[in-house]
Amino acid sequence: MKNSMCRKLIYLFLFGFHLTIAYGQNQDSTRLSQLLKDREKIHQEYVFYNAQNSNFWGKKSKKDLLSVIESLKNIIRKDSEIIKEVNTESLRRHAQVTIEKERIQNQVIDDRRVVNDNFYELKSQLNGLQNRLKVKESALHKATEQAEALQNSRKKYDLMLVFCGLVILGLLFYLFALRRRLNQKSQKKR
Predict the structure, then answer these.
(1) Among residues 61, 65, 15, 63, which one has the least CA distance to residue 40?
(2) Domain segments of the chain as ranges
(3) Per the confidence metrics, is the pTM higher than 0.70?
(4) Could you give the C-alpha distances from 149 to 153, 161, 186, in angstroms and in order?
(5) DSSP label of 150
(6) CA 157 to CA 160: how far, in whole Å?
(7) Phi then psi dihedrals of residue 40, to 5 deg
(8) DSSP helix/strand/coil, 58
(9) Cα–Cα distance between 15 and 35 in angstroms, integer?
């Protein structure tokens, strides 16, 4: 019974030590730290009373056994307080995590809404730009066709002008040739 009780106390002490490490960084765990320190003091009292052998035959007296039992009761009470504090701290942390989770979920929803709004706005801008591009391409195509038509008609006019110029030059050459002949005939007649 003594060994099993000691094992339980060691396990509880290790559990308490583990909780101290796990929660020691948080400033809200000062109560837990104080409880663990109190438990350590009570455990030292238990070790002290358990080591007493003040009986005539070198065994524990009734007073020593009552002190050991009282120390164990105090350890159990303190462990109950520690467990209660750990549960309270766990609930507090769980509440904080739940609140933070809800805040993050709301933020994600808001961010998604903003992203969707931006997406639709950008999509409508893209559609508008594509429509403008189509209009400009259509206008450019029409202007290109008009420019080609004007260039073709200009080529025709240029060819006509060249032809007319050649005809005029030919006629002038013919006139000069006729005049020369007339001049030669008139000189021969004289």
Answers:
(1) 15
(2) 2-108
(3) no
(4) 6, 18, 54
(5) H
(6) 5
(7) -60, -40
(8) coil
(9) 13
Determine the Cα–Cα distance for residues 96 and 109; give it in Å rounded to an integer: 20
What does the buried/exposed string (b/e) look like for 29-65 if buried means 16 or more CB atoms within 10 Å of the residue's CB? beebeebbeebeebbebbeebbeeeeeeeeebeeebe
DSSP states of 103-115 as a string? HHHHHHHHHHHHH
Which pair of tokens denotes residue 174? 């013919």
AA letter at 178: L
How far is residue 97 from each of residues 20, 21, 33, 59, 92, measured CA to CA in Å?
A: 20, 20, 22, 54, 9
Pick the closest to residue 47 from 55, 35, 39 (CA basis).
39
What span, in angstroms and rounded, lies between the C-alpha atoms of 81 and 31?
Answer: 10
**Chain position carrying tokens 């504090």:** 85
∠ CA 21-23-27, rounded to 5°: 120
What pLDDT, in 10s, does the model give residues 45-70?
Answer: 888 878 877 666 767 777 878 888 89
pLDDT in tens, 113-152: 999 999 999 999 999 999 999 999 999 999 999 999 999 9
Q: Are 43 and 21 in contact (CB under 8 A)?
A: no
